[in-house]
């Protein structure tokens, strides 16, 4: 699939589901290649984004295996694929142990879910799915049974390690949260508000400990060093430079999430598109 080098990552909770079509049109007009919809959506939630656009890929970031049945997911994807060929990417994730009482043996659960997609009445092709992954075993599974990996809340050091674990052919598409704000203190405050959830989830904190950070970086809302590495802030040019560092470390695509904003972040997406050299950066 042609994801492009850069995409937008957001949720309906952030932009408002009623604004889905308007947001998707803007993202496509600005020249981004992919619209990632987070918040554990089911595939029918992508339809308003697809209906409003002509070219961009629309991806789940991610569909949760504990809340989904493979046969239904495969059927939903086949229906979307019929209307929007080559434009839907099924991002699948195992979620967090803190979020579900069913959480158990994540690697085996993901393997079983993929088996279900393969055995469905309308099987989901390997090239139409990617997996959320952080650790080496899940990254290996990404390379073996999907288009590649969608990573989240990761530093550049993880992107470099993930590329090594995936090999050279699998797609690597990290999400990159950011704050467009030149005031360092207010930007870090917004970043910490966003980061608070993830610094309380052990799959993310264990991953950070494995890639250059210590317990003291994670404590008390996150050290400045950690916050600046995971959620870069500043002007659009500084955010664009941070995104390109992930590309230089081995990513194929970066999904940019502007945090701390309610509604469609028009000015932020437009500024990022310009800084990244996408289209004309004006949404026309």
Concise overview:
The protein is of the alpha/beta class and 284 residues long. 44% of the residues lie in helices and 15% in strands.
Shape: globular
CATH topology: TIM Barrel
CATH architectural grouping? Alpha-Beta Barrel
CATH superfamily: Luciferase-like domain
N- to C-terminal separation?
Answer: 24 Å
Please state the average pLDDT score: 96
Molecular structure report:
The longest helix has 15 residues, at 184-198. The chain has one domain: Alpha-Beta Barrel (TIM Barrel). α7 links the parallel β7 and β8 (171-172). α2 runs parallel beside α13 (266-275), α4 crosses α5 (106-119) and α12 (236-248) crosses α13 (266-275). The chain has 13 helices and 11 strands. The chain has 284 residues and is an alpha/beta fold. It is globular and about 55 Å long.
């Amino acid at each position: 699939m042609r994801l492009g080098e850069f995409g937008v990552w957001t949720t309906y909770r952030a932009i408002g589901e009623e604004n889905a079509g308007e947001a998707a049109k803007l993202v496509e007009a600005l020249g981004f290649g992919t619209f990632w919809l987070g918040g554990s959506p089911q595939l029918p939630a992508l339809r308003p984004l697809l209906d409003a656009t002509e070219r961009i890929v629309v991806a789940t970031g991610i569909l949760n295996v504990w809340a989904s049945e493979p046969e239904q997911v495969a059927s939903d994807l086949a229906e979307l694929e019929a209307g929007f060929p080559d434009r839907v990417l099924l991002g699948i994730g195992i979620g967090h142990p803190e979020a579900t009482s069913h959480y158990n043996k994540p690697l085996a659960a993901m393997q079983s879910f993929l088996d279900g997609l393969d055995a469905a009445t309308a099987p989901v092709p390997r090239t139409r799915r990617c997996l959320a992954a952080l650790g080496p075993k899940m990254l290996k599974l990404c390379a073996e049974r999907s288009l590649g990996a969608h990573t989240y809340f990761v530093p550049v050091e993880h992107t470099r390690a993930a590329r090594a674990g995936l090999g050279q052919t699998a797609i690597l598409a990290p999400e990159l949260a950011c704050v467009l704000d030149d005031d360092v203190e207010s930007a870090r405050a917004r970043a910490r508000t966003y980061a608070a959830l993830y610094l309380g989830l052990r799959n993310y904190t264990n991953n950070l400990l494995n890639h250059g950070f210590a317990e003291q970086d994670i404590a008390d809302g996150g050290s400045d060093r950690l916050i600046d590495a995971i959620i870069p802030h500043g002007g659009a040019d500084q955010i664009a430079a941070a995104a390109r560092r992930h590309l230089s470390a081995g990513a194929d695509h970066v999904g940019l999430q502007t945090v701390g904003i309610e509604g469609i972040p028009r000015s932020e997406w437009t500024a990022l598109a310009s800084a990244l050299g996408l289209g004309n950066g004006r949404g026309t």
